[in-house]
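Figure caption, in words: inputs first, then the predicted bound structure.
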Amino acid sequence: MSASATISCSPTSPDVQLEGLALIHADDLSKYYADKRNVAAIQHIHADIAEGEITAIIGESGSGKSTLLRLLYGLLEPDGGEVRYRGWKVKGPLEKLIPGHPAMRMVSQHFDDLNTYANVWDNVASRLSNTDLTAKEEKTRNMLDRLSISHLSSQRISDLSGGERQRVAIARALVTDPEVLLMDEPFNQVDAAFRDRLQQDIRKLVDEDGLTVVLVSHDPSEVLAIADALLILREGKVMAAGKPAEIYKNPPNAYAATLLAKSNILSSEGATLLKLNASPGKTAAIHPEWIQAQPDNHGAGVVKAVLFKGFYEELIVEINQISLKIINTQLSGLKAGERVTLQFERFVVF
Ligand code: ADP
Ligand code: MG
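Bound structure (magnesium ion present):
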């Protein structure tokens, strides 16, 4: 064990503020559920959430996303490691009477926080105290306005659509001016048009108010457009962290490459067969759009399938017994059975 690891393992007083950390900082965080003794839901996670950004935690179902979100918020007690907010330790339910960090609010997956029988206005206004009724009314009106739900003000939650309920849940979470909004699978079960509008509204809140947003999703395609930072989880471990475009261009492993880009993954032997340089034991990833296929009667590749996808086509090409997926944005007119030469614009080795 290194010297620095020894220091970070020593018990730190909860009342000491550590300097130089990201807004939310998870250090060596682990969580075991009692009925899954040998498998940790979250294993030794290090993560930094920057202030005023939208961070998306992505990974398949069961990868530990919700567990991590609840640990960041202080709803769950970690079994190892700790979470810091502005350098201060986030206390779990064992140390706190009211669970959850006071500077954060969470919108759960099923908005179960909402009072179904009350109307939209009361659901939002009830979060505010009655000491200043004018301010209470103004804040509520402003929040409904910013989430474009003013016209629903007197409707009961039970009469709203899923998408409308979600906007009410967000308004209810934000009306008390938290610094951080946590959202678990916010774009689940809403159509693409609704999702895009909600993403624009969340982006506006982040830009105008400096709100920090952490959201969880199992579908990278629905968050790539909105996230400033990504944290990719698999089986409770961090597979990649950083800016979406950077992880996309330089994935650190096959999992990240496949998840974000549906990349072609090759062993070093396979890469060598394609005259790509990968030392023994390494793996190469080639994104489908990094390959160009040119019709060539003497080419080494054979088109196995052409899938028309509208504004692009997907080719399956077999070359030296390797099957490659290629995305062509200029429709090539190639047909199954034709021979091609392939050009590789780029590939990544790890
Ligand atoms: P995700 O949100 O990515 O789907 P979760 O954080 O909900 O993943 O779950 C991670 C793992 O922990 C899964 O294997 C899940 O079955 C398990 N798990 C989650 N919550 C509990 C719980 N309350 N009790 C026991 N196991 C749980
Ligand atoms: Mg979940």
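Residues 1-10 have pLDDT under 50 and may be disordered.
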